[in-house]
Write a structure and sequence with these properties.
By secondary structure, the protein is an all-alpha fold. The chain has two domains: about 1-80, no CATH class; about 80-198. It contains eight helices and no strands. It has helices at about 5-20, 25-35, 50-60, 65-80, 85-105, 115-140, 145-165, 190-195. The longest helix is centred in the middle third of the chain and has 27 residues, at about 115-140. The two termini are about 30 Å apart. The relative contact order is 0.09.
Length: about 200
């Protein structure tokens, strides 16, 4: 009420609403928070600082607003491509998006010729690319968050069961000719359980 146009205040409000199990109210606050600065130039002082926007991405993921979270994370990656946390969150967010597609598309994803299957694979490949980069940055920068590293490795391992082995370092994921198939037994993890462990 005192500062209704502050992105940081709105983020705090969203966090409170999530803890109160009021996700719709949280999403409304997050939407307002983003709308204040998303169209501003990168150097505009009204844009929240980098750590605040990393926290925003986490809140957006917790509120199941993955597309909005990816918009924030892609912008962060352009500003600092050496941020381990932003890279990790980008990979995880894409994995959450893939999990939703898997549920949404149903049996269609088991036919490699369908657009749904191709879309799901593309999302998984993008996620793995972000996560492999996370592990590379983790090594190079000697990052010290062991839980982040462990979760990243778990996600990549599960993705490789579907996509096959990762590409050689320095090469992008390429289209796989073979379809490994995705069924409910291959679920890559429960997003709610992982979010609770953050």
């Amino acid at each position: 009420m005192v500062d209704p146009d502050s992105p940081e205040v709105l983020q705090t409000l969203a966090s409170v609403r999530l803890s109160q199990l009021k996700p719709e109210d949280a999403r409304a606050a997050l939407t307002r928070s983003i709308s204040i600065w998303k169209d501003l130039e990168p150097e505009d002082p009204l844009i929240p600082d980098f750590p605040t926007r990393v926290s925003l991405a986490r809140l957006l993921m917790e509120a199941e607003m993955e597309e909005e979270a990816m918009d924030v994370l892609e912008r962060l990656a352009l500003e600092d491509d050496q941020s381990v946390e932003a890279c990790y969150l980008g990979g995880w967010c894409l994995q959450l998006m893939a999990d939703k597609k898997k549920t949404q598309f149903g049996d269609a994803i088991n036919n490699p010729e369908t657009e749904q299957a191709k879309e799901l694979l593309a999302t998984l490949r993008a996620s793995r690319s972000w996560l492999l980069n996370t592990l590379r940055l983790y090594r190079v920068l000697e990052y010290e968050d062991e839980r982040l590293k462990q979760h990243t490795e778990e996600l990549v391992e599960a993705q490789c069961q579907v996509l096959g082995p990762p590409p050689e370092e320095g090469k992008e994921d390429e289209e796989d000719d073979e379809w490994e198939g995705i069924d409910e037994d291959d679920e890559v993890g429960d997003a709610d359980e992982e979010m609770a462990g953050m």
